[in-house]
Amino acid sequence: MKILVVGSGGREHTLVWKFVQEGTLTGTSNNTVYCIPGNGGISQIAQCVNIGLNKFDEIKNFVRQNKIDITVVGPEVPLADGIVDSFQEQGLKIFGPNKTAAQLESSKSFAKMFMKKYDMPTAEFEIFDN
């Protein structure tokens, strides 16, 4: 299976390591793992590709050209910017929340309002815009 991990932090390093080590998604050790953009540690165990996290069209072109089976996104910024929605619109397989759902992590005010709306326990809060 060909897997692309998007991100450059410790979370992504762990995902790449696990996919390489155990073939987690397929039950085999025959995974080919890429990482965009990756980091020095990731480059020791997988192929890093120098594409910016916000370059969705370039990432999708890489996915098509390399016949990636699934893309896994770690960082919240591309998720909040809609990378999952962009991939799904073109029928590309991707794991992560869509732009709306990602707001629960990327926007603390959205998350607090969501919790209040649905009577979820949360600490008292105020929202300020300046």
From TrEMBL:
InterPro entries: PreATP-grasp_dom_sf, PRibGlycinamide_synth, PRibGlycinamide_synth_N. One of its GO terms (biological process) is purine nucleobase biosynthetic process. One of its GO terms (molecular function) is phosphoribosylamine-glycine ligase activity. Residues 1-105 form the Phosphoribosylglycinamide synthetase N-terminal domain. This is Phosphoribosylglycinamide synthetase N-terminal domain-containing protein.
